[in-house]
Structures are given as structure tokens and as C-alpha cells.
Amino acid sequence: MSTQTPALSEHQNFVVRHPAITYFVLTFAVSWLGAFAVAALHLLRGEAISKFAGLMMFPAMLLGPCAAGILLAWLIDGSIGLRDLFSRMRRIRVPARWYAALLIPPVLVLTVFFLMKTFVSPVFAPNRFFAGVGFGFVAGFFEEIGWMGFAFPKMRGKDNFFAPAILLGLLWGTWHIPVIDYLGTSTPHGALWLPFFLAFTVAMTAMRVLIAWIYSNTNSILLSQLLHAASTGSLVIFSPARVTAAQESLWYVVYAAALWLVVAVIALFNRRQTHHLPVA
Question: N or C: which end of the chain has fewer CB within 10 A?
Fold first, then answer.
């Protein structure tokens, strides 16, 4: 027994000293191994991953950020950490302007598609796949328990908001690789998977800054979940149905540029809000 205690203590100390690193290692391991398990038969047979199997990767991947956030909150801070996590998920009393900010993703997505439909090609006409609402809420609810509920507070300094949000956004975009690339088969985007991934990650990094901006001013995981739901839901609902891989990459580039324009405007007119956190 005595020979095992130091090793256990050392591992526990590492988790306490490096909670964010531990979170990302655990999240990526659980999510990516889960995605691999869903598609394992296709990969072993040398087959292209079916669209159904690709969709089934999503619930497998959602387990990573959610489970890692809850587990580490308990391991590091015990029952107090869990109570704090769940209390921030119930924080609904925030100024109305932060709820109004939830309209940013759908308004921006529709604006991009209407402009591209008008000036580029009718193929960019927005779709109306309203089942996407469900995709948005599921992704937002489970992911943000980990991303904003655990990881971002551990990464953030007292007065530092922007840099941790950028880093988290890049890691968040990278986390999506299994469902973008279908575990190396490049099924959805073919040879253009890398340009699409880069455009997607740039867009998601900007969206992560917006989510972190709202969280930093409200301390509400719920608002983060709702903004994530609005983002994912808008993309699933309105994404044009008949675009090619090249056209999809193009509109993501335009969408990313629009998101970063919004981030720039927010940074310009809300410096105090983006650099100072409210008292919880």
C-alpha cells in the first residue's frame, strides 16, 4: 500500500497543478476514441464511413467535454466544485442584452447566405432543416459543461480574457476533426477537407470568443450553452443543401470573416466588459 500512495499523490498533484491540460487530454481521448469506436467496423473493412455512422460520432464525442468537466470539477474541488458548476448552469438572471446577443449567430448566418445567394450563386440560398434546433441544443448543453464550465475558468487569468478564448477556440475547432475528416477517410469534403477544416476552425475560434465574452460578463454556463445552441442550430438549419465541398468551404470563409468583424466591433466598444469579470 505504501508504495502506491506516492504515485497516486503525484498523479493527483499533476491534475491539481495542470487542470486545463488534464481536461484537454481527457476530453480528446474520450471523444476521439468514442468516434473511432463508432466507425471501427467501417475502418477495419476499408470502407468509407457512412453518413449515419458519421452522425453517430456526434453523441460519442459529446461525452468527452461533458464527462471530463464534471469529473475534474469533482476531483479537484469535490462537492463544492460540483455545486459551483451546476449553479452556473442555472444562472438565468442576467441583463436582457445578453439574451439579445443570442441572436448574433442566426442573424449572421442568414445575412451571409442571403448576400452570397444574391452576389455569388443561387445555390447559397438558405435551407430550412428545422430539426437542426435539436442538434444545436444537444451540442450546446453537453459541450459547454466542459468548455466554459471547467476549461475556460481554469485557463483564464484575473484580467485576461481574449488570449485564453482564442486558444480554447483553436482547440475546440481541432476537437471536431473526427467528424470533419471522418477519421481520415475525408468522406464529406474529399481533397478539400483541410481548407474546410481551416475555415471552420477560424470561424469557431471567433464564435468561442463570443461565447467567452458572454460568459465573462454573466458567469452563466446556461448563456454559453444557449449561444452554442444558437450557433450550431443556425448552421444545421440554414446550411445550403446542394453546395459542393468547395462552395461549403467558401461560405465558411465568408462566415468566419463576418464573425471576426463582430468580434472586432465588440472589442472596440466593450473593452471594459471583455477585460473585467463580474463578481460572482
Answer: N
